[in-house]
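Quick one before lunch.
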Amino acid sequence: MAAALELDARGHPVLILEREDTLGGILMQCIHNGFGLIEFNEELTGPEFAQRFEEDIRKRNIQASLRTTVLDIREEGGLKAIYCVSPSQGMMRIEARAIILAMGCRERSRGNIRIPGTRPAGVYTAGLAQRLVNIEGYIPGRDVVIIGSGDIGLIMARRMSWSGCKVHAVIEILPYPSGLTRNIVQCLNDFSIPLYLSHLVTDIYGRDRVEGIEVTPIESGALMHEKAFKIACDTVLLSVGLVPENEISRNAGIEIQPATNGPWVDSMLMTTMPGVFACGNVLHVHDLVDYVAEEARRAGANAAAWLSGYRPAREIRAKTGPNIRYVMPMRINPERENRLYMRSLIVKNDAQLEVRLDGAVVKSRRLAHVQPSEMLSLTLEPKAVAAAGRDSTVEIALV
Ligand SMILES: Cc1cc2nc3c(=O)[nH]c(=O)nc-3n(C[C@H](O)[C@H](O)[C@H](O)COP(=O)(O)OP(=O)(O)OC[C@H]3O[C@@H](n4cnc5c(N)ncnc54)[C@H](O)[C@@H]3O)c2cc1C
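Model of the flavin-adenine dinucleotide complex:
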């Protein structure tokens, strides 16, 4: 919606294709607050945040085709052809001059992390459980264990407690939590839910329904089988990471970045398919929706500029330096302001984020605390990279 509003404001007709029967995406099931602190300087719930954008979409008469699933995008006769299907219209082929990919991400499942054990009912991804509780009105179980300390799992620990369920534990393989600190405090500490760091779930048991799990501590990288213990439960929720929804991109031949699992993009957030842009969780998994909205506006503005014939005169490469997992985007326009997002590989207090142009530090910022779960950002002004040559490289490092 943020990208569509930006295109509309610049005079380009837009159509939103959405497979659900409402706009708003994952926000619609996030009925907790904590959204919009940056975007609106207010604390909103997910649906309230989405509603602000939806009201603007309505006011501006931007078309949205709901219950419409995009199956494929192709380059055909100099245009982009979008193949989609809806119960009311059947199969459709829509032509466009540009496309913005904003399909979000999907949750990693039990199969992705290969937890041994039987295959009883009662194992859900945390986001699915969230949808069942908040939208469909079902409680998936009563005695819950959450595997993984990602934000969705933490939010669900609190949600299930509020619903009268007992959340016995959150089990995390890493030595530090994967979710935001504020969620550890508000969703676990406030409800006295224990968080087991450096622990692995080594078995899920139960015949028809989950009856319990086995948890094994990890010490110095080794599983301590003699210290393994069991927790009885009837429900296991998995919060073990998100992966950009990239089937359509991959089928279209768009290059995918291994570090993010989303498309490779240049300084305009344009993928390797000219005229196809990407933003939000389909590009890289964000922590806060406020950053998704900012990035989406940029994708919309860039798509409008591209449609009006703008092309950057030159771009230089942005790459990861020490302790940085990825930098987004992977190209910098030295003539314009560049907004960069990145993720740390380390947990550290009093860290320094550095921008190095061909090895020389051209910008730096002190950060009180960094951890992989919290996205980092910086704005790079043209003056910082004024000395860049044709083969220059900008490296982002954390020291
Ligand atoms: C459980 C949870 C809790 C969160 N808590 C917070 C929080 O407290 N504060 C905060 O700021 N952020 C939070 N976030 C993060 C934030 O909500 C998301 O990062 C953001 O909403 C993602 O926006 P998006 O538009 O990229 O993707 P999505 O919201 O996932 O939207 C993608 C849309 O694309 C549609 N789609 C996908 N494929 C197709 C297709 N083939 N055809 C048609 N339509 C398609 C989907 O139906 C969906 O509507 C949370 C996220 C989750 C999951």
